[in-house]
Structure formats: structure tokens, C-alpha cells
Give the backbone structure.
Amino acid sequence: MLERRRRAEAALTSVVATCYLLGVSTRRMDKLVQSLGITGLSRSQVSVMAKDLDAQVDDFRTRPLDASPYTFLAADALMMKVREGGRVVKVAVMVATAVNADGYREVLGVQVASAESGAGWLTFFRDLVARGLSGVKLVTSDAHAGLVEAIGATLPGASWQRCRTHYAANLMSVCPKSSWPAVKTMLHSVYDQVDQEAVQAQFDKLLDAVETKLPDVHAHLDAARADVLAFATFPKGLWRQVWSNNPNERLKRDPQTHRRRGHLPRPHQCDPPSRGRPGRATRRMG
């Protein structure tokens, strides 16, 4: 009997927590629990549960980042509508995910700002560093100027990888529509190479192919070269995990800790392999 009651309370807490996160008012929540056949739950009890959830969320957002080093980090912002002062307004939800020392993907921080700005990103990253963020060797993100500057200011030892998906969209904006299929195919071929030297050589071929007929595309590619190809300095087995922040697109829809082994590389797999012989990390990934 006692065990059944505990299970019922756990299920109730889960229902209340989910409704709270979805923005359901306590009045509507009262009707919901009644429709589920749950009795004896007052609005004041719902409010107490919600406050307890607030405390848990605050503990999560301010916890020490002691599972360092966090070798690979991805950052992105999501525009969301929230209720504030009786009004519905848009806010920027900044999310940072990384790989911890145990090789798990982990949401390091979630912070809300009125807009995605350099000041907001700088405050966000300073908070992460103050909480213990360290050992970052590569940060993957889009090319938001404020975000890139915040990375450089707070993580001076880290390389920056411009997300290949976001970059393709940026490049398409300066490319004639009729030429985009061919340019896109050539750009994808750069990522399909077997090693860093081949990547650089294929990028040179892409530049040569567009230099005369598509000068704007050539200038765009040439300016972004170092940032788009930062992934190539790491072992090939890790490229797919670090050249885009698309995994972050899924995480930010559900901002909680995700611990899925193998989705992103382990920290010790970040060192480039020596020439002439595959590095230890490459052999493991193979």
C-alpha cells in the first residue's frame, strides 16, 4: 500500500512538473488532475510543487562544472515566447552543451536574455567559466558576431568551428540561385576527404572553380576558410561530431541534461594523430 502511494505521488509530481514547464496555469492544471482521476490536490499544493521545481532548476543552472575537461563545446540560441508581466514576449534562450571527462554529452548552461547579443553571450560564458568550465579546445557555433567575440574573450585557448550547416546557408545568400547546386556539391566534397591535407586541397579546387565566374562566392569562401575548416585539425573519426552544432538544435528543445554515450567524442580523442601512422584516438574510433 505504501509503495503504491509513493508511485502515485511520483506520477503526480511528474504530471505537475511537465505542465509547469509547458506553461499550464494552476487553474487549468487543477482541471487536468481531476480529469486524470487525481483527488485531494489543491492549487496551493500545485504551487508548492512548482516552487520546488524552480529550486531544482536553479540548482541545475548554477551547479559546479566539475566534470572537466570539457574538450568540445557547442553553443546556440533559441528564440522563444514566454509570459512576462502578463504579456507574451520573445526572448533568447542561450544553450551550451559539451562533452565531459566521462565522454558524455552534457548541457552546461541555459540562460535567458531579452535578445541574442554580444553582452548576453559574454555574461553567459563568463558564468560558465566561473562555474568551472575548462579544457575547451574547440567551440562550434554559428557566426553571430557577439557569440564569436564572447568565445574569444572567455576561452582564449579554444579554436572556433563555424557550423557547416549555418555556413552553407550564409554562402547561399551570395550565390546565384542557378549556380547554387554546383557550389553546394563542391562544398560538400570538401568535407568528404580522407585527411586534413586532402580537405585543404579540395577547398583550393573549390576556390579555383568559382574565382572567375562567381567572385562574391570566392571572397566569401576565402574569408571563412580557417573557421569552416577548423575541424580538420582533429582526427577524422571526430569530424562529423564537431563540424556542426546541429545536435544542439535538438537539445535546446528540451533543456535538460542529456547523457548519451557516443554521440560526441571523448575528451582524450581530441589530439591530432601523428603523420604516417594513425593516432590512438583514430584507431579507437575505427
In short: The longest helix spans residues 2-21. The beta strands are 72-84, 87-99, 105-113, 138-141, 159-162.
